[in-house]
Write a structure and sequence with these properties.
Layout lengths: L15 H25 L1 H26 L1 H36 L2 E2 L7 E3 L5 E12 L5 H8 L7 H10 L1 E9 L6 H13 L2 E7 L5 H15 E10 L3 E2 L1 H9 L7 E7 L29 E10 H10 L9 H8 L6 E4 L10 H7 L6 E2 L10 H12 L12
Parallel strand pairs: 3-4, 3-6, 4-5, 8-10
Antiparallel strand pairs: 1-2, 2-3, 6-9, 7-11, 8-9
Helix pairs in contact: 3-9, 4-12, 7-9, 7-10
Length: 397
């Protein structure tokens, strides 16, 4: 190269074009070499960039999680609470759907009272006209005996009425809080003698009457396929024939609620009988309840009893049993039948009506929410206001 320079140390001009061309080709070669690897390695570069971005994001998330850890814990608690509520609702819905499915899968083999219905579990379910549940307590043995001695048939007559007339009567009672207690054993002994009890899966208690009513209807629906289901207290006098013929008038109606309809005051004050702890739900103080049948005796049709059975887990219980029952039908297409013959006063009221040919379905004293001193007076009421021993046998249903 030294030979190519002149005496001044500069490159001879004749080599300039050659050098320029050489650098041009070298540049082209270098350029191609640089671009080709970039294109072939672009996925690796892109993947590397993504990994770097994910690493930054994860580091950022970790930082935020540490900063908001308390908030995250509260959010998790809330999500767990919501999940539990959702599960509880799902369980309730499944219970309702299961009961409805069982009801819809019943196979009816006969329309006569001697026939039966086969439930899903294979047990027979008798077809009857009406099931009458007499609400009673452990301490009410004398009341039960007063009913047996007057308007409720006994022994073979009780079985005959069930078979021929489709009228089922049972004293309804649950169990004591103590398993196999002396109270339960006393009921077992009484049942062995009379065979007229319907034992309920229920713990007895005065403040548990609303729950007992739900269980009674659910149990009765499961055992008998009836047109009507009646609840009556054990200190009320009933004429079975008049009750049956009265209910027969409403047989063609799908959803009827029969009884003496009332709308009493909502008692907000504590330490008074029939106090309503949830008085605030009924508006301002001094308001009245919605219309409902008085609790001494009432009847509901098959569809309504089935509705109670299906929806039992979610039916609200108010302090008073008759109010609770009325509340369960609010919002439903139900016909309320105000049947005043189901709440006659004791003599002379029911006696005068009987003499006039208007025999009452039921009689009791409003002042006592039943017949005052019913053990002593039930026989007298039966003699003066009863339909006669042959009353129920002459009814055509």
């Amino acid at each position: 190269m030294m030979k190519n320079r002149n005496n001044d140390g500069k490159i001879s001009t004749k080599w300039v074009p050659i050098i320029c061309i050489s650098f041009f080709f070298i540049g082209m070669l270098f350029t191609n070499r640089m671009w080709e690897p970039q294109e072939s390695e672009s996925p690796l570069i892109s993947s590397h960039q993504q990994n770097q971005e994910l690493k930054l994001i994860c580091e950022d998330c970790g930082t935020k999680k540490k900063i908001g850890s308390e908030s995250d814990v509260m959010d998790e608690v809330q999500r767990t609470h919501d999940a539990i509520k959702s599960l509880d609702k799902s369980v309730s819905m499944l219970q309702m759907e299961l009961a409805a499915t069982r009801s819809s899968k019943e196979l009816v083999h006969s329309d006569k009272y001697s026939g039966s219905t086969i439930t899903q579990d294979g047990k027979p379910k008798k077809k009857v006209f009406v099931v009458i549940g007499i609400n009673t307590a452990f301490s009410s043995r004398r009341r039960r005996d007063s009913v047996r001695d007057t308007w409720m048939p006994q022994g073979e007559k009780l079985q005959k009425m069930e078979k021929e007339k489709g009228i089922v009567i049972r004293f309804t009672i649950g169990h004591s809080a103590t398993s196999n207690s002396i109270l339960d054993r006393a009921i077992d002994t009484e049942e062995a003698q009379h065979h007229d009890f319907l034992r309920l899966e229920h713990i007895e208690g005065y403040h548990e009457l609303s729950a007992k009513t739900k269980i009674y209807f659910s149990t009765a629906v499961a055992m008998w396929d009836a047109d009507f289901y009646v609840k009556v207290d054990d200190d009320v006098h009933v004429n079975l024939g008049i009750l049956a013929s009265t209910l027969a008038h409403y047989r063609s109606k799908p959803r009827v609620y029969v009884g003496c309809m009332k709308s009493g005051p909502v008692l907000a004050k504590t330490n008074v009988k029939y106090h309503e702890p949830e008085f605030w739900k009924f508006g301002e103080e001094g308001n009245k309840y919605f219309r409902h049948a008085t609790g001494q005796i009432y009847a509901i049709s098959k569809d309504l009893a089935t509705y109670i059975s299906i929806n039992q887990p979610i039916l609200h219980k108010f302090a008073n049993e008759d109010v609770s029952l009325g509340s369960w039908f609010i919002g439903l297409e139900v016909e309320h039948i105000d049947e005043r013959s189901m709440c006659c006063e004791t003599p002379p009221d029911c006696e005068w009506k009987a003499q006039a040919g208007a025999v009452c379905v039921a009689s009791f004293d409003w002042s006592c929410s039943g017949i005052c001193q019913s053990v002593e007076k039930m026989k007298s009421v039966h003699e003066k206001c009863g339909e006669g021993d042959d009353g129920v046998w002459g009814v055509v249903l």
